[in-house]
Design brief:
With 272 residues, the protein is mainly α. The chain contains 11 helices and 2 strands.
Length: 272
């Protein structure tokens, strides 16, 4: 698959921004950027105050017309016909407000877009920063954005169970030999994207299959477990009720942690 690098390895690109861009493009987990939350807040507050000034001007103009030119407040046509001031007329002021509102709405819309983006996982941030610090594609000054990792956002939504994918991948990396891990979970296309032996790009589809298997085992265990335990345990009814409660809580916890289920979906699934 053409990943925007003409099929070449990350290391084939000239050191600097070309190589960094190829690295970021090699895996969607590395699509990390700053949201510049502080600057966006400053712009928002600045535009907001500009509108506040125009709002006060309009209120003051209305108050003045209420006293000296009340007919202007009851008819737009009369207002424009009787207003002799081309600079501070209500028509000009309304146009200024409209223009400024468009700027303000644009800022609000952009901030909403960035606020909706999720924070990247700590695992992906570490991999992103480690690669840049190891390869040093940029000058020290232009690498200073790495100091603001709390301001990072993930531009890719990733898998539904992103943290679980990372946990499974790390566990497989720990237990499986390196050559076996590469053979099973790294396709030839991914291997060709980099010559860096410290950077392993695993197939998301293959990792996802393992994650799904883990989730199936967890689900079966939580659903079948209570019946098996109740069959084997003999005793008071209070003990059996306690066991049912424990398994129900575990199921609800697994549903909350391992999926993106909403609150009402969790309640419905737990109740059934």
């Amino acid at each position: 698959m053409d990943n925007g690098t003409n099929g070449s390895s990350v290391d084939d690109h000239p050191k600097g921004y070309p190589q960094l861009a190829a690295f970021v493009n090699s895996d969607e987990n590395f699509l990390i950027a700053r949201k510049y939350g502080y600057l966006r807040s400053r712009v928002l507050l600045y535009r907001q105050d500009e509108l506040s000034v125009l709002e006060r001007d309009l209120i003051a103009l209305d108050a003045d017309d209420e006293e000296n030119r009340p007919v202007a407040l009851t008819s737009r046509k009369n207002d424009e016909q009787t207003d002799k001031d081309p600079v501070y007329s209500r028509k000009v002021l309304i146009q200024k407000i409209d223009d400024k509102l468009k700027e303000y709405d644009n800022v609000v819309s952009r901030i909403q877009t960035y606020v909706s983006l999720k924070n990247p996982s700590g695992r992906n941030v570490r991999s992103f920063i480690d690669w840049i610090q190891d390869h040093k594609p940029l000058t020290k000054e232009e690498s200073s954005f790495l100091e603001h990792k709390d301001d990072f956002v993930a531009l890719s939504d990733g898998q539904e169970n992103g943290w679980l994918d990372g946990l499974v991948e790390d566990t497989l990396n720990f237990w499986l030999p390196d050559n076996l891990m590469r053979k099973i979970f790294t396709s030839s296309a991914l291997s060709n994207r980099t010559d860096d032996q410290h950077l392993r790009l695993c197939s998301k589809r293959r990792i996802d299959l393992v994650v799904r298997l883990v989730l199936v085992l967890i689900t079966v265990g939580l659903l079948v477990g209570p019946s098996a335990v109740l069959f084997l345990v003999s005793g008071k009814s209070s003990l059996k009720i306690s066991l049912i409660l424990v398994f129900t809580l575990l199921f609800a916890a697994a549903l909350s942690v391992c999926t993106k289920a909403k609150r009402h979906e969790m309640l419905a699934a737990t109740a059934t």
